[in-house]
Design goal:
Blueprint lengths: L1 E3 L2 E3 L2 H13 L4 E2 L10 E7 L10 H9 L4 E8 L2 E3 L7 H4 L4 H9 L5 E8 L2 H13 L3
Antiparallel strand pairs: 1-2, 3-4, 4-7, 5-6, 5-7
Helix pairs in contact: 2-5
């Protein structure tokens, strides 16, 4: 970052890193009313091609909690299905609900993508939790 009297701006290296992140991480999507994460408000985010970097999803949950979220769950999109590491191999079958269609329509997951749903007591904490969790994989 470069600081001058007029303010701060990204350096060429900073702009390149921003472009790299923006190409991998989707915008957050508010998914209130889902039962996928703790908290009154939930926010989802996708990370392109990040499935190989997911261990158990605990790292993403911990990152979300550190910024004020109540929790987060990590889904790996594999064989056109939402899966949970060391858990369900087909979340839509095992936990039916309208949320899965919404995640498909809003985030357009592809095989080996990751979808994280963060929950919190307020909208901002839910969104920050989702972004923080996504950055552990980007």
């Amino acid at each position: 970052m470069r600081v001058i009297a007029a303010g701060c701006s990204l350096t060429g290296k900073g702009r390149a890193e921003y472009r790299r992140l923006a190409s991998r991480v989707t915008a957050t999507v508010d998914v209130e009313g889902s039962q996928l994460a703790l908290g009154k408000f939930q926010s989802a985010i996708g990370v392109r091609g990040a499935s190989s970097r997911v261990n158990h999803g605990i790292e993403q949950r911990d990152s979300a909690v550190r910024v004020g979220a109540s929790g987060a769950i990590t889904y790996v999109f594999r064989d056109s299905k939402f899966t949970v590491p060391n858990g369900s191999k087909d979340c839509e079958r095992d936990f039916p609900g309208a949320i899965w269609k919404r995640l498909r329509e809003e985030l357009h997951p592809r095989n080996d993508d990751v979808v994280i749903v963060s929950g919190a007591g307020d909208e901002i904490a839910a969104r920050l939790g989702a972004v923080s969790a996504a950055l552990t994989l980007a």
